[in-house]
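Tokens for chain A. Residues wanted.
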């Protein structure tokens, strides 16, 4: 029987990247913006005009394929912008040309993802967007937009073509060269997202290599036994959100009461989302500061949270498929936000010169990390190996991930 080398979780050679070999990384800074009433009106029109451009480009692609079986590319639509702007100088002609190109690139990205899904199987065609759901426009810094950082106690400002110089509450410095600026609306709030490119700053070596197993009872467990509890932010607000949803459903359409309830709902959803993101950032930062190499499962969250397929019983009805129980599990998985956490962890690792290894998750939960035998799992938190006995399920999974990434002396080395 192979025993788990306990010291391997805190020692061992860590591969470091030479500072000269590190590529530049992009970092996004999100700041609250405070436009004046006239600026807010111009910003709303900016979003509406870009939404119309997005929908018109989508309609052109759809009709070209429906009528002539011709695919319209981004290059073709970008070349048409000059004529569109000339024909409408008071509308599209007043906006930044490069910002409109970014909107067309956004549509092109949507179609690229659609083609990939279509090749893989079932895919929904891109949809038209209403003005209420088109909430951001991207500008290239220095071409239609300019970032003016704060000096001392004054406001920072972000100047956008056709909007003006908007006051921004800059709560931290922007490091590196500013590449793009985004003007974003979240319900009744406005934000400026500044994307800057800078050299990564490698952190000092720690000699620690770990594997991470994420879960719903515990948010994560490391291969050396560290446990981070799951805060369940959505569950903490679920009663208030459910009550507001019921009241909103009973309210008269287009009434003032319904609008107030929508604003209250948006506030609670925003709070839960911000708390979850803040928790992910702080947890990822602690792991990056203390570990040189981190192994994580490459999970397919969309497949894990898919609704169970109905099972016909042959008599016109359907067999039980535990859809209600699966819906509850899906809600907890999405509340944990594993995909967002993995993305934040990888981004912080690239900035700090650390390494994140994504491995195939198949079998990590029910394979014994010590001998490789298949384990039984009588309870969610326990696995029982026929050779080695009882293990904590999350620690066992984390050690399998550690070994599968090639960090220990484990048998499995497959990566994804």
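Reply:
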């Amino acid at each position: 029987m192979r025993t788990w080398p306990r010291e391997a979780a805190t020692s061992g050679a860590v591969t470091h990247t030479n500072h000269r070999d590190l590529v530049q990384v992009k970092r996004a800074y999100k700041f609250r913006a405070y436009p004046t009433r006239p600026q807010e009106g111009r910003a709303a029109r900016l979003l509406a005009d870009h939404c119309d451009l997005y929908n018109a480009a989508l309609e052109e692609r759809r009709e070209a394929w429906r009528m002539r079986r011709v695919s319209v590319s981004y290059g073709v639509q970008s070349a048409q912008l000059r004529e569109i702007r000339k024909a409408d100088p008071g509308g599209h002609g007043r906006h930044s040309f490069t910002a409109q190109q970014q909107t067309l690139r956004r549509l092109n990205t949507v179609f690229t993802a659609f083609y990939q899904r279509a090749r893989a199987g079932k895919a929904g065609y891109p949809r038209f967007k209403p003005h209420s759901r088109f909430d951001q426009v991207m500008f290239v810094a220095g071409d239609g937009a300019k970032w003016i950082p704060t000096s001392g106690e004054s406001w920072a400002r972000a100047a956008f073509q056709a909007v003006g110089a908007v006051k921004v509450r800059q709560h931290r410095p922007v490091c590196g060269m500013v590449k793009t600026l985004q003007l974003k609306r979240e319900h009744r709030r406005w934000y400026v997202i500044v994307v800057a490119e800078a050299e990564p700053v490698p952190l000092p070596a720690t000699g620690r290599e770990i594997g991470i197993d994420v879960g719903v009872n515990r948010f994560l467990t490391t291969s050396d036994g560290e446990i981070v509890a799951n805060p369940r932010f959505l569950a903490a607000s679920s009663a208030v959100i459910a009550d507001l949803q019921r009241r909103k459903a009973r309210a008269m359409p287009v009434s003032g009461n319904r609008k107030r309830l929508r604003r209250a709902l948006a506030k609670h959803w925003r709070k839960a989302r911000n708390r979850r993101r803040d928790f992910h950032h702080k947890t990822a930062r602690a792991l990056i500061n203390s570990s040189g190499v981190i192994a994580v499962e490459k999970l397919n969250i969309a497949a894990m949270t898919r609704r169970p397929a109905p099972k016909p019983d042959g008599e016109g009805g359907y067999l039980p498929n535990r859809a209600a129980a699966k819906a509850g599990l899906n809600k907890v998985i999405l509340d944990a936000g594993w995909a967002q956490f993995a993305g934040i962890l990888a981004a912080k690792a690239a900035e700090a010169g650390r390494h994140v290894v994504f491995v195939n998750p198949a079998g990590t939960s029910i394979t014994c990390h010590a001998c490789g035998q298949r384990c039984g799992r009588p309870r969610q938190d326990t696995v029982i190996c026929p050779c080695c006995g009882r293990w904590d399920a999350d620690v066992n999974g984390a050690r399998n991930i550690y070994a599968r990434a090639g960090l220990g002396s484990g048998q499995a080395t497959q990566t994804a």
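Residues 1-20, 409-416 have pLDDT under 50 and may be disordered. Residues 256-290 form the longest helix (35 residues).
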